[in-house]
Amino acid sequence: MANDLIEAQSVCSPITRSAIFIVATLAPGAEAAETVRGWCADVAGLTRSVGKRVPDGNLSCVCGFGSDAWDRLFGGPRPANLHPFREFGVDGRRAVATPGDILLHIRAEQMDLCFELATQLMAALGDAVAVVDEVQGFRYFDMRSIIGFVDGTENPTGRKIERFTLVGDEDPEFVQGSYVLVQKYLHKMGEWNALSVEAQERVIGRTKLSDIELADDVKPSCSHSSLTVIEENGEEVKILRDNMPFGRPGVGEFGTYFIGYARSPQPIEQMLENMFVGKPVGNYDRLLDFSTAVTGGLFFVPSADLLEELAEREPG
Ligand code: HEM
Questions:
Q1: 210: number of Cβ within 10 Å
Q2: How confident is the model at residue 15 (pLDDT cuts 50, 70, 90)?
C-alpha cells in the first residue's frame, strides 16, 4: 500500500518490517498537559512530513492514552472501557502493570523512517513527558517471532479487521477508536532452544516449519493457541496483533513486544487471564515458562479526527 493512503491513527495499517514502541509518562503540572494537547494536533502533519520522503515506506503512527492520563489531559467524556491495566496471574507468572500515560506505535518498512518520526514526535513533546520504555522491533525471517514460530497467522483479515478492532455504535463519541494493550516479554532462549521441536510445537499449538495448527487430539489444552482462542455467543473473537521481536544478542536479551488492538479491552484481558491464571485455573500457557512479562499497559487510541479535536479540549 502506498504511504499516501495511510492516515494518522491507522490501527489497521499493514504489518511492516520495522517498528518503534515508546511508552512515556506525563510530567506534572498544567503546562505539560497543555503541551501534550497541542501536540495532538501536530501528530498527523509530522507523520505526513516524514512519510512523504519514502513513498513506499508505509510509515504510520498510532498514539494512545492511558486511563489516568485521559482524565488529566482531556477530562470527560471518556472512552467507556478505558481503565488502568489489570494484572493477572500469580507471583513468578504475572502480567504486570507498569507506568505509562502515552503510547506511540510507529511502523514502517524501514527503521530510518520510524527513527526520524520518533525523533520529531519526541522533540515536540519535550519535557512534557518522560520516556519509561522504548523498543526498536524488527521483523524476523519469514514473519517469525524470536522464538522461531511464524507470528500473526490467525490475525483477522479483510473487513473483519475493522469489525474486531474499531469501536462502533456501542460508544458513539469514540467511534473508530481502538483499545491497545502492550506487554514487553523477555525470553529464556537457552531453555526454549533446549526443547525438542515437537515439544515447542505442543507449547504453541502449531507446527514450527509449516505453521499449521496441531490436530485437536494432539494439541494440549495448555498450548498458547488453545488458551488465546476465545468465543462469545459461539463466534470466535479475534484481536489484531503486530508483535515484534527485539533484543541485544551481546547481552543475551531476546524479547517479544506484544501489541494487541481490539474494540474493547475485554477479549485481550480474557486471553491474558487464560494464559496467566489458566483455563481451568492452573492450566496456564506453557509459553510463560520461557517468557516473562516485564511491562504492561492499556491505552485508548482516538480516531484521527478525534485526536485533532482533543487538542482543543479544556479539561474541567
Ligand atoms: C510471549 C509473547 C508471545 C509470543 C512469542 C506469541 C507468539 C504467538 C505465535 C507464534 C502464535 C501462532 C501464530 C499466530 O496465529 O499468530 C500466536 C498466536 C496467538 N497469540 Fe500469541 N504470542 C505472545 C503473546 C500473546 C499474548 C500476550 C496474547 C494475548 C493477550 C496473544 C494472543 C494470541 C492470539 C489471539 C493468537 C491466535 C490464536 C489462534 O487463533 O489460533 N499472544 N502467538
A1: 7
A2: confident
CA–centroid distance, 33 to ligand 1, in Å, is 36
| Nearest-CA residue for atom 35 of ligand 1 | 228
How many Cα atoms are found within 13 Å in the side-chain-facing hemisphere of 305? 5
Neighbours of 201 (CB within 10 A): 20
Q: What's the Rg (C-alpha) of the chain?
A: 19
pLDDT in tens, 162-188: 999 999 999 999 999 999 999 999 999
Side chain identity, residue 308 = E
Distance CA 31, CA 33 (A): 5
Cell 471518556 locates to 78
- The closest alpha carbon to 106, from 23, 30, 39, belongs to 23
Name the closest-CA residue to atom 21, ligand 1.
Answer: 224
Query: How far apart are alpha carbons 15 and 183 in whole angstroms?
Result: 18
Residues 6+ apart with CB under 8 A from 259: 21, 105, 180, 181, 182, 241, 242, 243, 244
Where do the domains of the chain lie? 3-310
d(CA 38, CA 43): 10
Ligand 1 atom with minimal separation from the 187 CA: 1
Instruction: Respond yes or no: is residue 68 known to be catalytic.
Output: no
Residue 258 Cβ contacting ligand 1 at under 6 Å = yes
Q: Among 101, 151, 242, 285, which one carries the catalytic annotation?
A: 151
